[in-house]
Structures are given as C-alpha cells and as structure tokens.
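Shipment paperwork, digital attachment
Item: protein structure file
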Amino acid sequence: MKLYGLLLFAYILGSFPSAYLVTKIFTGKDIRKIGSGNVGTMNTLRNIGLVPGLITFCVDFGKGAAAAYVALSSGVEQWILYAVILGLLIGHSWPVVLKFKGGKGLAVTAGALAFIDIKAGLIVFAVIGIAALVVKNTDIATIIGFAVYPFTIYMVKHDVCVLLVGLMQFGAILARHLSEGKSSVFSVFRAP
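Attachment content:
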C-alpha cells in the first residue's frame, strides 16, 4: 500500500507544470507552442530566457529532491526509491494536467538522484556532459547517459530489482525523446 501511495504522490508532484507556468508568468504564452514544444528546462532556457530557464530548472530539480526525500523518509526498500523516481519521471513527462505533454525528465531525475544516490547521479550526468561535447546534440547525449544509468545504479546498489526499475526509467526517457516527431534525435538518422 505504501508503494502505491508513494507512486501516486510522485506522479502528482512530477505533473506540476513548472515550465508551462513560468513561461505563462514571464510571457503569457504557452511553452508547448514555442521552440521544440517541450515543457522543460532546456526549451524554456533557449526560448524564454536565462532567468525563466533557471527558475524552471530549480523547481524541477526541487520536485525530484522532494519526491526522493519523502521516499527516503518512508524507510522503503532501495528498489522502491527508484520506482518513485520512475513515477516522478512519468508524471513530469506525461502530466495529466497538460494532456500528457510534458518535459523529458532530466532536471527531476537529477534532483532525485542528488538525494538518493549522488555517486550514480554524478556518473550519469558526467556521461551526458561528455556525450554532449562529442555528438553536439543534447537529446542524443541524454539517451546515451540514461542508457548507462541502469547499469550504474546496479553497480552501486548490487540489486537486480534496482536494475530492472532503472531499465524502465531508461525506457521512459527514450520513449519521451522519440515521441517528439520534430525532436533533434531524428535529425541524426536523416541523410545530409
């Protein structure tokens, strides 16, 4: 019962549309109709500005940290902590309040990992940073970073259940990136 309550809490918290609200406050516009249409930090930063982008990042990071804090305080098993991140990620990426069109989950996952497992978080975000420098595409870099994520948390936690939940998280992030027809992920596969 505790698992379902935590997952529901994580989904609802993840669904809080920070990029949408910040953009509305600063410009009166709908972030879903601007730039990539993604309801997240990067689209806000690129198209609305530095301050709105930083506010969005901080709120999204805070959502992740809050979900992790509540889960940790509940004294649940390790795999449930990662399941809570999955619930948060699903809420952020497919929020019911925005007709299931949300962000890609980078900031919320960073916030959660900062509390649950800073070591694994640093490894994953270092891989994303290096990949971004090499491939010059943040979407592809994120996919690469989260491809190593399940194995990174498994190496740290040595728990098969954690590995399985990590693979589901990677699946959610991959699905969210590939669900955008105009995503720059697809540009890599197009002929020049």
